[in-house]
UniProtKB/TrEMBL annotation:
Lineage, top ranks: Eukaryota, Viridiplantae, Streptophyta, Embryophyta, Tracheophyta
Protein name in UniProt: Leucine-rich repeat family protein
Main localization category: secreted
InterPro entries in UniProt: Leu-rich_rpt (IPR001611), LRR_dom_sf (IPR032675), LRR_extensin-like_regulator (IPR051582)
Protein source organism: Populus deltoides
Localization, UniProt: Secreted
Keyword Secreted: yes
Amino acid sequence: MSTLVYVILTSLIASTLSSGTNGETLEFLIGSRGRDLKNGCRSENHRKYRATRCSKLGDAGAPPAALPVKTKLLVFADQRLASVYPIIQKFKSLITSDPLGITKTWVGSDICNYKGFFCDNPPDNNSATAVASIDFNGFQLAAPTLDGFLDQLPDVALFHANSNNFAGTISSNIARLPYLYELDISNNLFSGSFPTAVLGMNGLTFLDIRFNFFAGAVPPQIFTQNLEVLFINNNNFMTTLPDNLGSTHILYLTLANNKFIGPIPTGIFKAFSSLSEVLLSNDQLTGCLPYEVGLLKEAIVFDASNNKLTGPLPVALSCLEKVELLNFTGNQLFGMVPEVVCELETLRNFSLSDNYFTTLGPMCRDLFYKGVLDITNNCIPGLPFQRSVVECLDFIAHPKSCPRMWSYTFIPCNSPFSSGSMNPGMAPSS
């Protein structure tokens, strides 16, 4: 040992002893003789020291604390995951509310274990791994937009995000997503016009945009697109129901709680013939009920309440052999309640309140006393809770007429007509 080194160690030992450093520390300082501190901190004899001092001393080979330290590079299972990582992280930075702590899991390179993200092999490469599905249902996340996120996930096939607080409009770039076939953004805060980008998505089979703030017209093309499910209820759409509604083959369709105007198309039986629930309530539909509603043989629920429909009830409703709920509350219907409708064996709830019916036969009265028929606030003499005489007379003084008046006594399911011997659009011979 040189004289210089000896002098330095002697001074160091003296300084250490005077400051009260313990023997273990002293042994480490002498034993290391200035060698790599990293090895000393890993020594089994200095665990206690490492816990209290090594973090302060730092590694000999590490850069000074004041200099930037390189972070560990993320390693992804597939390049497709690496490409969407910055997209997800950017979207994460836009999240303004996350009460369930969902985004706390959106850390690191294992994107397939992020909560709400699901991976699979993309259709174009069975050996690759990609984000194939997003399920944010009920996460209560809030963000001002989905732009730059949904439309930038090239391999996504299902995107479900109902019951959140996402806002903004839907980017037209979603039309570029080649595999997307289910899109559910219901029960959010989206606004603007109908997302017309979906019109060019031939692979889309499921579209649910209900309970948002979309407004304006609904493009007629959507009813003839290759969709199985279309839920657009509870928005602010204001348009007529298109004539091509009868050309649709959508299996599940809801239009209620918008501002649809105009009459119910006579082609309704083509549009809704396979539906168990036909929901046209809380719109602004006008005109008379077409007898074709009686051709909805699968209907269990038919609800056209709270519109501006007028005219008599068509007796064709008696053809709805599976119907359990008929609701025409809050319209301007009048005349006699058809007895043959009240004879339906499956009927459990028949609501005609807030109309202007004037006559009720014995079968219908029987339903009224059983609590099946709600006929309150009409113009039927002798029944409780009816409109005032003044209201009823005022309505009668302004008579309403309907086209095809013959059709209100026409029963299309009767054997002579159900066999196809007669064109449904023509009046039966008298």
